[in-house]
Structures are given as structure tokens and as C-alpha cells.
Amino acid sequence: MLQQIEAIGQEFHEATKHSYLSVMMDPNYIDASTQPSVFKRYPHFYQRFPLDPDNPIHCFIRLTSSITWKKFAGNNSYFLRVNPSAGALYPTEIYVQIRGVKGFVDGLYHLEVQNNCLTLIYELVDDGIDNYVLHQQLVKGFIFLVSCAYFRSSWKYKNRSLRYCFLDSGHHLGTIEASAYLYQQNIKAIFEFDKRGLNQVLGLENQEFITAAVVSGHLKDKPVKRLRSQLPFVAATDYFEANPFVEEGYKSTVVPTHLTNISQVKVPGFKFDHDHFYQTVLQRRSARFFGKQVITKFEFSQILAYLDYPLNTDSLERIEIYSIINRVEGMQKGVYQGEKLIKTDDFSEKAGYLCINQALARDSAVTFFFVCDYRNYQTAMQWVGWLGHRLYLISNYLNIGCSGIGAYYDDETQEFLETPKPVLYGMAIGR
Ligand SMILES: Cc1cc2nc3c(=O)[nH]c(=O)nc-3n(C[C@H](O)[C@H](O)[C@H](O)COP(=O)(O)O)c2cc1C
């Protein structure tokens, strides 16, 4: 008899649910002047390599995390990036191992986003991080690691930041995918590997944790020694307050090491106009309001088709997409699961309410919810973040606005969608 296997991480999703009451009782006011720093920087004596905007391989790395907009508010300035982030808090950092690539010292680098450079934090001899991520394989090319300096997000969002760290990490995978597409690099994302071992050897202590890896390049069947020494701890924020819930939520959703043996890395089969897609990546922004205008049924079906491309990974999560159609020319208003109509009516006010009275969800053409009976919470949340990133890019590519919506009443939304499965992420698109 088949046994029901309890999903890994359920209790952390349950414990971070929003409800009408929870939001009323904890409106979550913060003092903006106490925000921790959003850029990690290794000490000055580490060697740095500027990323040349005219070198395609440098651009491939650079475009995974670039700053694309500077915003002024009062006396402060904020840097927005290719990747969106809940509350623009940017908990994610990127490390990349480079081996056998012309012009680079074989080593492990930290991507210093603020200064568009790679900081060499470890030089390879006959060792590497391959063996933490893959089974007996060597990567000639790149292994990207996405990590979360979680306090940047927990500073504001407390326990719910566990969700936002994973979602932001998924968005960051989406930016790596987009950059790889533009610079014709193959990629494959891996979620289940020896993250604990890496956290330790990279000296991340309890302040930062690895969430995903992306392999890009050629693979050889050859075992690689683990790193010969541990790296020193370097803080990702100027100050730090531990959040035991987030730390436990991360640890409990790291599955026991399951090293993947990947025989090939595939190129996703997208077909975009290169220059237009490049501009879309550079100009991607979150819509801040919608003018209650329609999109067409053709645009909507193009969007769904793009979301339907498989994610380039071995993991086995199954995401269902629910759409509240508010304003799509040629389509009946109502709730759809994929293309199947579930119920009809004008639910725009309801959509706004469910997203904690956010006008974006009410005035949108479509408000989406990603639903999943996950096997592993940490992986599934990153999948929906990655899908969410595709939604941003395809919408912006079609000249349609988009925004992530991480704040919604969990149980009421699930009830409204008439699904037994938890809702992992919301998004809205429109003009
Ligand atoms: C996981 C996630 C959740 C988000 N949730 C909301 C939200 O509930 N409401 C909202 O207006 N924007 C939301 N956003 C959008 C962010 O505020 C936005 O990404 C950030 O301000 C950076 O701006 P940019 O996306 O234009 O670069 C979310 C983004 C992400 C990635």
C-alpha cells in the first residue's frame, strides 16, 4: 500500500500564513533607518576582477545580478536590480566557481554586485565545489551558487521572510536563466546537494545559506576533491540579528544529500528576438499600479505557453497555475486553472482583498496564484519564484506590466481557488 509521505517543510508554510486577523494584529511597522546593508563585500585585500561590459562571458556573469535602476527617496538612494526582491531587500548573493575558462584564474568567486566585479575568494588546485553539487563529475565552466543573507529580509518580514528568501532565490535562478539565454550558455539548476557542507566550507556560519546551484558548461566523469580548507567568515550585512525560526526552516527543508549525476545540460527552447529580450531584461520592473486596461486572449495564451516550458532541473515539483481573469479581451471573467474555467464572475474586488487589499491585484488584467502540493518546500518555493521570473520577463517583453505579490491571505485564497493545495505565490499582470 502506498503511504502518504508528508511534504518536507509543511509546518513552516503553515506557521507563516497571513490572515485578516494576523495582519490586523501585527501590521509590521519598521524603522527604515535600521535596514541592514544590501551589498556583501569581501575585505579589500582580496583580488578583484572587473567584469568587462564588452566581453560576452563577463556579461553572462554580470547580467545575473546587475543594478539596472537608481531610485531616490528623500536623502536616500536605492539600487534596483535585474532580479526583483520582496520589499527590494535583496537577500540573495551569487558565488561562482570558474574552471577552464579563458581569461579567468580557476577559482571560486563572489559576485560583488555594487562594483560589477568578481572577488576571488578561493583559488582551485585539484579541488573544487563540484563534489558538493554533483556525483563524481567535474565541471569545465561555471557552477553558480545562490545564497541568502536572510537577515536582510527577516529584518522586515520576520518569520515570513523564509518564504521570501526562497522566492527571491527562485527569481535569481530566473535571471541566471535569462542571462544564459542571451549569452548562449547552457544551464541546469540543482536543488538537492550538500548545502550544509558548502555553508560550512564557505564560512557562511548561520548568517547566510546556500539555496540552489546552477551548472553551466561541460561535464567530465571525474571525481574532484573537496576544498582543501575552509574559507573565513565574512559578514554579508553590517549588523545581524538571528531569527531561529528562519534558520530552522532552512535546515529542516535541506533534504539529506542527494548528489545528482547529470549527463547533459540542456538549452531551454525559447525563441525571443535577441535585442528586444535583452532590453526587456535590462528594463524589467515591478508595476506599481495598473490602469484597469485589458490584455488580449492571444497575449494571455503566449504568457501561459511560456510558463509551460519545462524548468531545466531534475527536481519533481508540480506547480499548478490559477488565474483570476479580470480584464482579458475575448475571455470570460472568472477563475481558471490553466485553461480550465472553474467559476465565472467579476472577481477583481475579491482578488484585491485576498492580496491584503493591494490595488495591483484588483486592477490587474490577470492575478495569478501558484499552487503546489510540494514534495520539498525549499525547492518548490524556488520553482515558483523561477516561474514568477519568467512571468515578469514574458509580460514585460509583450509590453505588459507585472508584479510579484508575496502578501495574501493564505487560507482564504486557497478556499477561494477551491484547491486542497497550498498557495505558494501570487502575481499580477496588466497595463
Ligand atoms: C517574492 C516577491 C514578493 C513581492 N511581493 C510584493 C507585494 O506583495 N506587493 C508589491 O507591490 N510588490 C511586491 N513585490 C515586488 C517588489 O516590491 C519589487 O521587486 C522590488 O521593489 C524591486 O523593484 P523591481 O522589481 O522594480 O526591480 C514582490 C517581489 C518579490 C520578488
Automatic annotation (TrEMBL):
Stored Pfam families: Nitroreductase
Domain of life: Bacteria
Domain Nitroreductase: 282-431
Coiled coil, from the record: none
Gene Ontology MF term list: oxidoreductase activity
Name used for this protein in its record: Nitroreductase domain-containing protein
